[in-house]
């Protein structure tokens, strides 16, 4: 893989990470409502979920999933159901923005981490990224396709976690508005 191809992949990954989707909205929502720690837990959970997609793509499982319209539709519906559940839980919390302290805080952060993980694993946009976009940056004559697929996936995941710095910008903007 040439440096030029790799840099094109980096740019494409950055653009896709910044496009708002369920993961970005979850991340920003947690950051704005509950602060930096909650946002970071969401970001790390989302990032771990992306590694599940990378493993599925490298093993060929993603290709099997996309080949079956029924299986892909089931994953999309599971993701939609999970997002509805998260939204319902947010509404059920009666709008309380108070975040627990002590052991309850640790438990809440762990819960946010796993919500982020599930949000990403059940996000069909991420699955499509790994199965449709990554191969576009690989050569058909590549002697080590799995190695390069993993390298591209890890790069994409690192870009994803770096864009979680986006959450700090959102939190600072909220803090400035609150202070005024």
Walkthrough of the structure:
The structure is a single chain. The chain has one domain (about 20-180). With about 180 residues, it is an all-alpha fold. Helix 2 runs antiparallel to helix 3, helix 3 runs parallel beside helix 6 and helix 3 (about 35-60) runs antiparallel to helix 8 (about 145-160). It has helices at about 5-20, 20-35, 35-60, 60-65, 70-90, 105-120, 125-135, 145-160, 165-180. The model has no long low-confidence stretch (mean pLDDT about 75).
Tag the structure with descriptive keywords:
single chain, mainly alpha, 180 residues
Write the layout of secondary structure elements.
Elements (H helix, E strand, L loop, with lengths): L2 H16 L3 H13 L1 H24 L1 H7 L1 H24 L10 H19 L2 H10 L11 H18 L2 H15 L1
Please summarize what this structure is.
The chain is 81% helix and 0% strand. The protein has 180 residues and is mainly alpha-helical.
Helix content: over 70%
The unreliable regions are none
Structural class label: mainly alpha
Distance between the termini: 51 Å
Mean of the pLDDT scores? 77
- Domain tally: 1
Count of helical segments?
9
Calculate Rg over CA atoms: 18 Å
- Total strand count, please? 0
Shape: globular
* SSE pattern, N- to C-terminal: HHHHHHHHH
Q: Tell me about the biggest sheet?
A: none
Instruction: Give the strand content.
Output: under 5%
């Amino acid at each position: 893989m040439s440096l030029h191809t790799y840099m094109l992949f980096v740019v494409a990954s950055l653009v896709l990470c910044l496009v708002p989707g369920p993961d970005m909205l979850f991340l920003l929502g947690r950051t704005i409502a509950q602060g930096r720690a909650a946002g970071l837990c969401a970001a790390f959970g989302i990032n771990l979920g992306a590694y599940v997609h990378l493993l599925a793509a490298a093993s060929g499982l993603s290709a099997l999933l996309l080949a079956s319209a029924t299986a892909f539709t089931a994953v999309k519906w599971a993701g939609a159901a999970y997002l509805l559940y998260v939204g319902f839980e947010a509404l059920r919390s009666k709008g309380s923005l108070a975040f627990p302290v002590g052991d309850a805080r640790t438990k809440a952060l762990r819960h946010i981490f796993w919500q982020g993980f599930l949000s990403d694993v059940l996000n069909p946009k991420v699955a499509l990224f790994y199965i449709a976009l990554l191969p576009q940056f690989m050569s058909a004559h590549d002697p080590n396709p799995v190695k390069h697929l993993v390298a591209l996936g890890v790069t994409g995941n690192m870009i994803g976690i770096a864009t979680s710095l986006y959450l700090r910008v959102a939190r600072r903007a909220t803090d400035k508005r609150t202070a005024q």
